[in-house]
Records
---
Amino acid sequence: MACVALAARAPITLISMAKTKVVAVINQKGGTGKTTTTINLGSALSKRGKKVLLLDLDPQSNLSYSLAVTQPEATLADVLLGGKSIKDVIIPKDDLWLVPGSNELVDVEISLVTQPEREKFLKRILAEAKGFDYILIDCPPSLSVLTLNALTAAQEVLIPLQMEVLTLQGLDQIMNTVEKVRKAFNPGLRIKGIVVVMFDMRRKLSQEVLEYLRENVTEKIFDSQIRLNVKLAEAPSFGRSILDYDASSNGAKDYRALAAEYLGEPDGQE
Ligand SMILES: Nc1ncnc2c1ncn2[C@@H]1O[C@H](COP(=O)(O)OP(=O)(O)OP(=O)(O)O)[C@@H](O)[C@H]1O
Ligand SMILES: [Mg+2]
């Protein structure tokens, strides 16, 4: 297994991080819209003039696949395993930039577990990704050492959440983890908000869970909900964001509205 020592010694250039906002998109439950939200919020932010880097931190590399990047020359694992600078693995993709992931992130995860300051590796390498307004990190469906690295590198957390009873239980776990990371490693970390995804407003249970959340959770719940929309599920097979695949779909409208709300700007859509 490759050694992670070199990356551990990379200098932290905090100046470059001052302007870039790093956002971890997390939910330890699988299939909750993390990757879909990373790509499409990223694309919508980019179409509002922001320079956006997407980072695929999931060994499944669904984010890379969804942007039709299937066999990149180098990936995030090559950076985290010590050889390359993040600048060497960034790929331009439509109006976005991507740091591709790969299955080798499993090796990274195993290597990191025994490293001192194992939570800081991603923060160190991101310091070299200069000039971006936003770096959105697509996290794996676990609260693993990779997710811990994302939370240590990030200033903000976005939680995509389906309106199901069991997601409420998972939400507590996420909040607890964020709180622990804030206290131990990253005092500036804050939950930017919960994004309601795959929302079916005709379904009574979805409405009830949303009501419960509004009454019991103090974190912001974005008003812009992402509706269930088959075009969002189709877009990855065309390797494009929903905004480039079908700009008039409900999925595109919802992610544009979310980007506007995220930035605190007027939506401007009908
Ligand atoms: N609003 C939506 N409407 C319809 N389908 C959606 C929507 N959002 C996501 N999907 C589909 O649901 C599935 C799971 O979404 P996604 O891959 O974004 O979840 P994830 O949290 O990243 O999953 P994992 O935990 O495996 O990384 C995908 O097939 C995706 O295309
Ligand atoms: Mg995913």
Note: Strands lie at 21-25, 52-56, 91-93, 96-99, 134-138, 156-162, 190-197.
---
Amino acid sequence: MLFNSSQLEKFRQDTPGVQERIHFNNAGAALPPEPVLQAILSHLAMEARIGGYEAAIAARREVAGFYKAVGRLLNAPSRNISFATSATEAYTKALSSISFKPGDVILATEDDYVSNQIAFLQLQKRAGIRLFRTKSRPEGGFDPASMEKIIRKHRPKLVAVTHIPTNSGLVQDAEVAGQLCRQHGCLYLLDACQSAGQMPLDVTRLHCDFLSGTFRKFLRGPRGAGFLYVSDRVLKKELAPLFLDLHSADWTGADSYSPRKDARRFESWERSYALLLGSKAAAEYALKAGLDAIRERTFRLAASLRGQLSEIPHTQVLDRGKSLCGIVSLHIDNWKPLPLKMALEQKGINASIAGHNSAVIDFDKKGVEWALRLSPHYYNTEEEVNTVAERLKEVLEKQA
Ligand SMILES: Cc1ncc(COP(=O)(O)O)c(C=O)c1O
């Protein structure tokens, strides 16, 4: 299942950015491979040559290929895929399609993404929904027994799970949540922003009604592009985002409109076709590499990094969970996050910082205000992992 050395060499040849820096910020935005860059640039060039609307028509076959490629990534037909400008746009459009009434329940987890948590709190204020959060297991991740208990007692209209949180290596048990939702007839919204491109995703096993994601992270696509999977169940129920437009619906008469039948009901008319085509190239690149092998290598590199970092004095590796992914989070005593990030930057290492307000519940439990986030991907090397651990040690020793 692991990549061989010539495959790894090819991945790196395809990725000009690896010459410049050690990029361990794939959970922020990964380095795109050449085919992604070329797809974007060549479409922009065509727009400049023949006009933006004309270029979209000329590229219509390729555009249709976007839906096929993302569908293959999720094991879903093209009709269930829509393009979005970000994961958050995809997520909030899905949320907006559910007509919550006062007293309706949303059941989330403690590790759901910050913007999702804010949206739930807004719905609490605006629509009078009741928000519950599934208890977490001591070893991390939501507790299925707690989820089932709350579902039985409060009959949520929606269950929301973030598959991999932004701030740690945890992988939540998204399939178990899906089974519970099917069993109890709840809608299920899965945030797969950090898992898409990092591990295989199969909506027939996840049993989700909606799945949102972005391209710029582990999928290695461009910024400004995301996607939403919408199940046939949802499409048949005629759920539609709060505001439709001339692309997502037809204006059929002075006082009538008709929403599209497929998932493009969740799209807006205007989008960057260059980014859409770059996203298609990114999805195809990931499919060609193979998501099982990507997961295996990415998780393995991160595990090696975690092991090395845990040996460094005064550092606390924060990742919890029975399955840990490519995100490594750690806290370092007596350091402020920004100088640490800058010190690594000076050593040619890209990392990022998760602040307290990105993971209020998790960080309070762990007793930290921030975490350094290091996120290797399959195109990174074992040598880079060792170098990052060594450089970090040097930075901390210099300061001691
Ligand atoms: C788990 C998770 N969900 C959602 C998002 C939001 O993605 P976007 O910035 O594309 O809206 C992020 C971004 O970091 C994330 O980590």
Note: The chain is about 45% helix and 15% strand.
